[in-house]
Amino acid sequence: MTGAAGAALDEARGRLRLTAHQLDALALTVRSAAPETADQRRALDELRSAGILDGQDRVHPLAAQFVLAMTAPLIRMLVETSGPQGTSAAHVAVAGEDVWYSEPWPGSGPDDPVTYQRAELPTIVWDLGRLAGLHRSQVPAGATAVSAPAGLVDIVLEMASLGPAEWDDARTVALATTTTERWPDLDAQTRARWLAIVATLRSWWRVTVSWGDEGAGTGRWLSVLDCGADGYWRWDHPEDRTDDGVARVSLVPVSGGGLWEALQGLLPSSAELQAAVGHGRG
């Protein structure tokens, strides 16, 4: 059922569509708290129109399950992506057997509705891969790990964070800055590889997984450049600092299958979850 301003409930497919104001108003209603702003009061009317709240402001069971999972998850995941259409950040929450994730569009703002989808634990790696845009890819022939100054990586990440109007110009600037004058210590092979990475960059994505009670969690992360025909390049370790004090980043070529295994490796084991929960209660 669809209501005003994009609020919607799809019980058959286990999904909701909400703006930020509607999400805030729904969370307040689940806690039996009164709306605090005019936007939240207006959002309550929109939730009623969509059937997410009934005439007595009782929350639909699917929406109640969603709010409880998103506000008190045992495992939290953040999938950040940047590409020619802009940036987005999808949130994934695991609470018991309940899994929910958001699917924002690049460049969306607080007034834009976001779809929240219910999922299941056995499919969680599939969901993470889809949110990140993971696809089949082989390591290019002859590709080896590249170590370069962190500042050079920052130029590429800045390019990846821009919208469609600036993307091509930013690529031109990034290519121009990979020069002997700007980076005199780069060897020819590293410089050539970086030029290829910048020239073929399609997107950047990062998946962060944390777990445990609020304030007591720990986690892991994976950061990746998707260069299309030039393959995937990942780094998920702290930057190394050389003797001259320059921070460096190592990028490692990896296949799509290798990233699938890496996503699996981000998830906590039963022992890690038990330790984190026990620490939080202590």
Structural class: alpha+beta
| Straight-line distance between termini | 44 Å
Shape: elongated
Radius of gyration: 22 Å
Beta-strand content estimate = 25-35%
Q: Could you tell me the mean pLDDT? A: 84
Tally of strands: 12
Low-confidence stretches: none
Q: What proportion of the residues is helical, as a percent range?
A: 25-40%
Largest sheet: 12 strands, antiparallel
Main attributes?
282 residues; 12 strands; alpha+beta
Per-chain topology:
Blueprint: E1 8-10, E2 15-18, H1 20-30, H2 38-49, H3 61-71, E3 75-83, E4 86-95, E5 98-103, E6 114-119, H4 124-132, E7 146-149, H5 150-160, H6 164-177, H7 188-200, E8 203-211, E9 218-226, E10 232-235, E11 240-241, E12 247-254, H8 256-266, H9 270-281
Antiparallel strand pairs: 1-2, 2-6, 3-4, 3-8, 4-5, 5-6, 7-12, 8-9, 9-10, 10-12, 11-12
Helix pairs in contact: 1-2, 1-3, 5-6
Explain what the structure shows.
37% of the residues lie in helices and 26% in strands. The chain has 9 helices and 12 strands. The protein has helices spanning 20-30, 38-49, 61-71, 124-132, 150-160, 164-177, 188-200, 256-266, 270-281, and strands spanning 8-10, 15-18, 75-83, 86-95, 98-103, 114-119, 146-149, 203-211, 218-226, 232-235, 240-241, 247-254. The longest helix is centred in the middle third of the chain and has 14 residues, at 164-177. The chain is elongated and about 70 Å long.
Quick synopsis:
The protein has helices spanning 20-30, 38-49, 61-71, 124-132, 150-160, 164-177, 188-200, 256-266, 270-281; strands at residues 8-10, 15-18, 75-83, 86-95, 98-103, 114-119, 146-149, 203-211, 218-226, 232-235, 240-241, 247-254. The protein is of the alpha+beta class.
